[in-house]
Fold this protein.
Amino acid sequence: MYEFTYHKAESIEAAIATLQQSDDAKFVAGGQTMLPTMKHRLASPSDLIDLGGIAALRGIEVNGDALVIGAMTTHATVAASAEVKKLIPALAGLAGNIGDPAVRNRGTLGGSIANNDPAADYPAALIALGASVKTNMREIAADDFFTGMFETALAENELIVSVRFPKPQAAAYMKFENPASRYAVVGVFVAKTKDGIRVGVTGATPCAHRGLRLEAALNKDFSPAAIDSVELPVEKMNSDIHASAEYRAHLVKVMTKRAVTACG
Amino acid sequence: MPTVKMQVNGKSVSGEVESRTLLVQFLRENLHLTGTHIGCDTSQCGACVVHVDGKSVKSCTMLAVMADGCAVTTIEGLASGAQLHPMQQAFMDNHGLQCGFCTPGMVMTALDIVNRNGNNLDEATIRKELEGNICRCTGYHNIVKSVQAGAKAMEG
Ligand SMILES: Cc1cc2nc3c(=O)[nH]c(=O)nc-3n(C[C@H](O)[C@H](O)[C@H](O)COP(=O)(O)OP(=O)(O)OC[C@H]3O[C@@H](n4cnc5c(N)ncnc54)[C@H](O)[C@@H]3O)c2cc1C
Ligand code: FES
Ligand code: FES
């Protein structure tokens, strides 16, 4: 890892100001992706701005019929939260199955979605629940947030403040996990919302996406059997040492069926 | 160079570090607490697990400057003199180690498991909770037994 200048930001404004004054600064949240990336020299920022001291970025609030979770809230906190378990138990379950306990004690919601790893879990939940991402500048719908592999709609000087998750009528997340890292080979989040069934798929393609064909089938008939006749575009699926494109296409359907069953 | 101050195993310590110094390097190289091991340096193996403000973290994936002002507990902080901590004793009694390389991380993770799940742990819980700790020797079976026995012994 190359040397850099470390800053501990006290407020959102201070974090943005430091970013603007620096050559090539990056935020660091839990560091569970950022530090490994820097060790590999895939990133070598001039400055690292630690968001860990900003109280306004942490915490879980119930706001009407929605959960608002601060960007710096760790996976362990989300998994253990009584509010999350009550309002959106599938989200608590998802957070509780990210990586391992030590990763969950440091890794954060904001870091996960800003990074947008193609195999990350949270993006599927944001998409299926119709969540919105609040930044220091604006509010971005999940549908518009995840734009490509490791790419998001965030601008250079934009910092994620919190994510708003509307409560669904029912929801479930099923992941076929990589046995070493626990990242999703394929993960499918199914939600029954007031606007119908929404499906978020991660791991399958270079960027998490809405499963529109799956949604169409499930909006007609919310049953596992409805998935049988859905044709998925194999040519768009990832293919790597963990799973071929054909296998991933198969897994998307299997995980969707399991999630539908779990929704009850 | 930044200066960091923290409580390590109950003692106040401070030192000058580079920004990029990992917490595990600070513990091993500045404080000579070499009980915390580096197995992979890539956040996979858990040999470097310590507690920061009471929570388990992989100290190879945290900067020393991030732990400034925190309370850190390492494997060296568990025994009282020659008297092993009940979790350490359980690893000894149950043959929970062979080469011992993974053991400090296993024990620190085991204590975190007890903190969150209590003293009555079933095998499935222990195996799930140990997902971030890799052992190349034991095949895990005796580690699971050790954690279960250690958790029980901590109740008394
Ligand atoms: C062994 C291991 C296993 C893992 N398994 C899984 C898994 O099963 N599923 C899964 O989903 N993830 C997994 N992860 C990733 C983990 O969830 C990380 O915590 C997450 O990807 C990054 O979160 P972080 O808080 O550590 O962010 P950091 O690493 O600190 O930052 C990541 C990126 O986000 C940016 N960033 C951080 N916060 C903000 C913010 N508020 N606003 C704007 N930009 C920001 C940073 O600048 C950086 O570019 C695993 C990681 C490890 C090491
Ligand atoms: S050395 Fe830290 S996880 Fe392996
Ligand atoms: S006892 Fe040798 S690695 Fe676990």
